[in-house]
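Please go through the protein record below and see whether the fold suits the sequence. Record follows.
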Amino acid sequence: AGEGSPIPFPSVDLVGKRARRMAQAQDPRQAAEMVRMLQEHCIQARTALEANPNDHTALAKWGEVLLELSMLKQGEEAVALIMQSIEKLEKSLDIMPDNHNALVVLASALNARAFLQQDPTVAQELFNEAKKNCLKALELEPTNQRYKQLLEAMEDAPQLHAQLMAQIQTQGGGAGAPKPEGDDEWFYDMLGWGILLVGGVAV
């Protein structure tokens, strides 16, 4: 069916806030429980798609959960989860192009991927793509303040990326997924996750 069936995922607001707190607290047991719960939601989405491969809602939810899961991972594993998130969200939008919520989650995932690039040209291309998706979401929902906040944050993204790369160079960081030490809140907010998750955007 075109709309797909709803899946009982928790809201981004609740999961996102808890995931960030657990990541910051670095409580292994709590973090493991959050990972387990998010993985269960991925299984639910996969099951829904086996029943209906065109379930754009399940695809969007899967992409959203993968983005949240990436918050609890580091390095190549976090990068892989972001890439999978983008893939699921793009498939969802291929089926339902005017899903403004999915567009915003995709914009945030692309923004996250951009910040994990050390090549400024590659990062800028991803920032541009993220902004394009956010603008389209705003065209569909012109009064949505959370979308406007995310778009405003994206205006500063290239400058923040340059600052991050300079910090990594100063610290002697190498290739991979950069992550400043001791300031996870700043890092997540830079990626756009702060606005996405605290704002409570739900697909």
